[in-house]
Amino acid sequence: TRHNIGWLALDELARQQGVSVDRMKFHALTAQCVLNGEKVLLMKPTTYMNNSGEAIEEARSFYKIPTGNVIVISDDINLAPGKMRIRRKGGAGGHNGLKRIIAHIGSQDFPRIKIGVGQKPSPDYDLADFVLSKFPEADLKTLSERFEDIRSATELIVKGDIELAMQKYSK
């Protein structure tokens, strides 16, 4: 679904790293890998999207991860399918999953990669129905073509070069 675009992107990143995100820990499917010499925990929370902050905070607290080292990949209905927006920090922008992450970790100072999934077909269309619907084949193709950029942007952020990631991939 549109709400699962972060999962799809993470699966591709994991595949390229030769790992499977399939170990249940912290209310999430997890895997560890190394990106740019840094040990990274990949997480796909198994809670409802709006409760994903619980899983992230559990892992962050357990591993003593600084808030600024948490990278969230999420959907964005305000961007056309496949468009990316990378931010160093910021508010939730109306995204309930991001609101809950901010509430659970107690900060909005974490990088995020937002992936456009398109807008509702009409203003009266139910938002929940829209984000829980499947992508049209053309949109899924456009999105899958961006997975390499998402992986590259994630690696740049892990490396500490979020400015370059923002310049290069926020389009």
Short summary of the structure?
The chain is α+β, with helices and mostly antiparallel strands. Helices cover 40% and strands 19% of the residues.
Write the layout of secondary structure elements.
Layout: H1 5-17, E1 23-25, E2 28-35, E3 38-45, H2 52-63, E4 72-76, E5 84-87, H3 96-105, E6 112-116, H4 127-131, H5 137-144, H6 147-159, H7 162-169
Parallel strand pairs: 4-6
Antiparallel strand pairs: 1-2, 2-3, 5-6
Helix pairs in contact: 1-6, 2-3, 6-7
Element string (H = helix, E = strand): HEEEHEEHEHHHH
Q: Roughly what percent helix?
A: 40-55%
Could you list the spans in which at least 5 consecutive residues all have pLDDT below 50?
none
How are the strands ordered across the major sheet?
A: 1-2-3
Profile the largest sheet.
3 strands, antiparallel
* Structure summary, number of beta strands: 6
Comma- or semicolon-separated keywords:
alpha+beta, three-stranded antiparallel beta sheet, three-stranded mixed beta sheet, 40% helix
